[in-house]
Amino acid sequence: MNIRRVNRNDAAQLVGLFESLDHETSFMLFEPGERQLTVEAQSELLPGFIDHAHQAMFIAEDDSQKIAGFVVGIGGKMNRNRHALYLVIGVRQAYQGHGLGRRLLSALEQWAIAQQFHRLELTVMAHNQVARKLYLSAGFQEEGVKRDALKVDGQFVDEVYMAKFLNQE
Question: Which homologous superfamily does the CATH classification assign to the domain defined by 2-165?
Answer without folding.
Answer: Gcn5-related N-acetyltransferase (GNAT) (3.40.630.30)
